[in-house]
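Protocol step 4 of 5: obtain the predicted structure for the target chain.
Materials: sequence only (see below). No template structures provided, no constraints applied. The aim of this step is simply to have a reference model before the mutagenesis design in step 5. Sequence pasted as it appears in the construct record:
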Amino acid sequence: MRGELCVGVGSLLSLVSVLLMIFVHVGQINTSNVPRNVYMAKVNVSAYGDALSFAIAPDPVFGLYTDNASAPLQAAAGLRQIYKFGIYSHCAYLNDTAGRCGNQTIGDQFKPYEAITTDMSANWSIFTQSFIPDSTFRDSKFLGHNSKAAYWMLLLGLLCAAAAFITGVAKHNMTFLVSTLFAIAGSLLLLIGASIWTVIIQRAANINDLPVHSHSGDQSVPLGIVVSLGPGLLLTWAAFACLVASVIPYMIRCCTFR
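Step 4 output (structure tokens):
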């Protein structure tokens, strides 16, 4: 393999990793087309109202959801249908396009239970506290702390990937060595960040299987809250794979450059 090809392949892979992570970082900063469709985790609560109706029948469920897409978040203005969480903010949607995002915060914490209950009116928020059993989904401290730690891993991983790309351009054995080290460090950081997000989403998704029983206890339906991973996490794993792959051509060029 010619040296120029090694450099080109390594630089291309590290650049792709950088671009993928940039997409991850813009997820859920607003409701425009690209950010709206990039998120780390999604919480669908569209069926939660039906579960409540089943559990408290024949009493009706009024005022749980809002039909105002512009209503502020975490202000008891009403539950939305879908919540999507990025690493700087979360957004809530009435449908595929109509929604609103919360304030942007560096390393915004993944706290789905807090996000939905603070949108509910006080009576439904109190009821939900006793209705949803203790689970990882409710453990805002655990989910928030780990998602915050994952943010820093992903940010540092992005910076290392960018440094690997920049230093790999110069034709010098020392810069090839530096780019190799940056690619290795970035790969480890992205691996840690992606792994943390994968674990916390999977653990929060345990709520997907929780049932709701009728008054008599002889019937049950799903709770109506479904947690799933999003494209942002898949992009993160893809960025990790690209950066790992870039280590090989960088290392080959480092060892063979004269």
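Step 4 remarks: Helices lie at 3-26, 33-36, 48-56, 112-117, 122-131, 140-167, 173-204, 231-256. The domain at 1-256 is CATH 1.20.140.150 (Butyryl-CoA Dehydrogenase, subunit A; domain 3).
Proceed to step 5.
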